[in-house]
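The following block was generated as part of the benchmark described in Methods. Ligand: PBG.
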Amino acid sequence: PIGAMPGVVQHTIESLVAEAHRCLDAGLGGIMLFGVPLAKDPEGSGADDPEGILNVATRAVVDAVGDRLVVMTDLCLDEFTSHGHCGVLDAAGRVDNDATLQRYAAMGLAQAHAGAHVLGLSGMMDGQVGHVRAALDAEGFQDVVILAYTAKYTSGLYGPFREAVASSLVGDRAAYQQDPANATEALRELAQDLAEGADIVMVKPAGPHLDIVAAVAAASPVPVAAYQISGEYSQIIAAADRGWIDRDRVMLESLIGIRRAGAQLILTYFALDAAALL
Ligand code: PBG
């Protein structure tokens, strides 16, 4: 169980495969997997190790559900690095954008080999879409889809997720995630991700940035996704647990708002609950 996300748990391989079957039976469009390794190191070497937990889990899920459920993987180093940053660090302790791109390419290939259908590039390094796309194409993975985190804002709402993945981060990600006060950068990021070959573009967090979802939806020639993140989930659960709001009603209202803003795909921890009501 994840304390700050009641109802959400870390899985074993066995329970994950059972959950994937539940998602399939519920009619969900897809699932996204994140890995929580036992050991971390500065390079995040568990990320591209074929025996790393995320790659092992991906193989197990794809073996079980095949193409009947879209299986997406988080492509970022933060769960695997001992310092908790989304990339590798330079000698001064800063995130090294270009050295990180090499690690993302290796991670993307490991995920494609494991059978992932969609790679969720969430690390926010400049050039990540083009770099991973080129690596995939060079190894014959033209059909693997890139879901680009196009506008990913620095947010206090990631807090519960960092507990969920046992993050070791000290400090913040403000050097590579976006400033919530900046709207125009999202459209520059959109143009860049499209030019590099993004197949789906995503805005995150969803709820506080619905204007950005709408702006990206108006400008994007590819499908637009929005991620209702951990803190958005936990806020609703916490207030409902106190009896202050109606859980199901507020859950659906939050999802409808994201859909109305223009998202064609929604990533949400409420997926199974919402599917039961729709
Ligand atoms: C990075 C990543 C994060 C989330 C998804 N991918 C964490 C972060 O930026 O700190 C957050 C998801 C959530 O809060 O629900 N691997």
